[in-house]
Hsp20/alpha crystallin family protein
Amino acid sequence: MSRRPNPLDDLGSFLERLGREFDAATSSWNPEFTPRGGLGWSLQDREPNVDVADYGHAFVVSADVPGYDADDLEIQVSGESLQIRGTRDQTRDRDGASIIRHERQASTFNRRVALPDPIETDAVDATLNNGVLTVTLAKRQPADEPRRIDID
């Protein structure tokens, strides 16, 4: 007797594919949309998870960016904001090998992190180690002495 196909066999891959399509659609409708929580789907390949620590004199932002090289990342700072962008190209060349399965894809992300205090844009350091990007941002120091302003 032949075995009847089970219609639920492909349900898992269908739901994963549906989740990716949903994430792509919602991010195009509203770039500020962050599906952390909600339906349990995530944009983790487009928005890395970050930690922000306040050390008094500086903020340290750590971002998970596995598979990205330093050349794939771009960091911009302004005022009270840090922006991290990443672009990873799809790798297809395998030196003449016959590809049996190809799941790794090109991906991009753009993550903006709001900081509670202004930062010195000239005093920012970034390192990438084992897929973790660490950005140290010195806080802007207030003027020590008050300045008198003349009225015209």
Summary: The radius of gyration is 22 Å. The chain has two domains: 10-43, 45-92+106-141. DSSP finds one helix and seven strands in the chain. Helices lie at 11-29.
